[in-house]
Amino acid sequence: MTYRVDIEGLDASILMHPKVWEASGHVENFTDPMVDCKQCKARFRLDLLGDMINDKKKKKALESLKESLKDDAALLEKISKIQAGSVENENFETLLTDNEIGKLLLPELNCPQCGNKGTFTSARQFNLMFKTFIGPVEDSGAVVYLRPETAQGIFVNFLNVQSASRQKLPFGIARIGKAFRNEINTKNFLFRTREFEQMEMQFFVKPSDDKKWYDYWKTERLNWYYSLGMTKDKLRYHDHPADKLAHYAKEATDIEYQFPFGWGEIEGIHNRTDFDLSRHQEFSGKSLKYFDEESKEKFIPFIIETSAGASRSFMAFFVDAYYEEEVNGEMRSVLKFHPKLAPIKAAILPLVNKDGMPEIAREIEKDLRRNFKVFYDDKGAVGRRYRRQDEIGTPYCITVDTQTLEDKTVTVRDRDSMEQERISVNKLTEFLIIKLSQ
Ligand code: ATP
Predict the structure, then answer these.
(1) Distance in Å, CA 44 to ligand 1 centroid
(2) 3-state secondary structure string, the chain?
(3) pLDDT digit string (tens) for 174-229?
(4) Ligand 1, pocket residues at CB < 6 Å
């Protein structure tokens, strides 16, 4: 965001007027279908239930369903169509979430928790927003929601930011912050949590330019993951078919990463049209029209959204960077983070704790700390110290040794190649700046 002249930053509040969530459609539509097991009381998201049941059992359930429907040619044909038309493992999800078929398929399934068959309730819609109350009175007039996404804070502040920054279309507003969702099943570490960090950007464009900018951001965002070293083969787009688009979207794609447990969305890119600004204008009674000086026209801009999970994509970077390798007969665990992502950019290590080496190392640490997050470590053999830094992904280890005392040079060890080069102490800042900007 800070590298671009056409994007402004914003921090908006977590608790907003409840009407914001009516206008956005969250009160009505931000729901997941869920089922309960009557036996063990476990609760599951219907669209994810299939992922928790093994393929053999799913096949058996489908066969049994088809057998019971043998006289209903229309339904059998519908099932075959869904099976033929969906990608990969998605057809079971489509069958389960289909109103007609899901009802019949559910009783054929075993609960993933207690193993009992036919114990599911029928599906109910469950709103994912956390509700609380403003002030001391817990009545419907005092309801507020913890925001389930950061985007709405951008929409309602659109004209404030636009007029304060004097931006002209096309331009974007970006923000990073906590979002809260009452997820039915949290799982897979940071992938799905109830409190998570989002980084969203809403790009405001002329309505006729929507396709151009949607395609631009689709490419740009995938390139962002590439540029930070994520394995290309483990990234893909998942374009949403027209019949599965969210209520606000004209076109949508997910950027997915291949996690050890399967492909999962890390970012969504959506053409949200003028849906959001029109709704906020309607619910607030305040105009959110943009005045285009060139054409002298007033209109509601279209919005292209890039909506990424900071915690979920952190997990993808984390998984992608993790390696176990054999080095000289010993195993090392290493996080090969891109230097820009590494939490610590360099470690400063005096080879021994004498002969003035710690003093020089501390000076280097103090100097570098003004610009970079660095770490000083003088505990244990230097080889072990290198390994500790490998484990946390520190790209460079700077070692002060005997030669430093003579010529003011240090060794800089590269985490991935493990090669060392000698660099003058006064060139270290420049060295790190260059490495971190690549
Ligand atoms: P999912 O289908 O996985 O529930 P979603 O389509 O509802 O995700 P969006 O509403 O598009 O997700 O949110 C944008 C991004 O926020 C997602 O791409 C993801 O990275 C992140 N995100 C959404 N829900 C969670 C969560 N419960 N925990 C962590 N990150 C999340």
Answers:
(1) 17
(2) CCCCCCEEECCCCCECCHHHHHHCCHHHHCEEEEEEECCCCCEEEHHHHHHHCCHHHHHHHHHHHHHHCCCCHHHHHHHHHHHHHCCCCHHHHHHHHCHHHHHHHHHHCECCCCCCECCECCCEEEECCCEEECCCCCCHHHEEEECCCCHHHHHHCHHHHHHHHCCCCCEEEEEEEEEECCCCCCECCCCECCEEEEEEEEEEECHHHHHHHHHHHHHHHHHHHHHCCCCHHHEEEEECCHHHCCCCCCEEEEEEEEECCEEEEEEEEEEEECHHHHHHHHHHCCCCCEEECCCCEEECCEEEEEEEEHHHHHHHHHHHHEEEEEECCEEEEEECCCCCCCCCCEEEEECCCCCCHHHHHHHHHHHHHCCCCEEECCCCCHHHHHHHHHHHCCCEEEEECHHHHHHCEEEEEECCCCCEEEEEHHHHHHHHHHHHHC
(3) 999 999 999 988 888 899 999 999 999 999 999 999 999 999 999 999 999 999 99
(4) 149, 181, 183, 192-193, 196, 198, 265-268, 307-309, 311-312
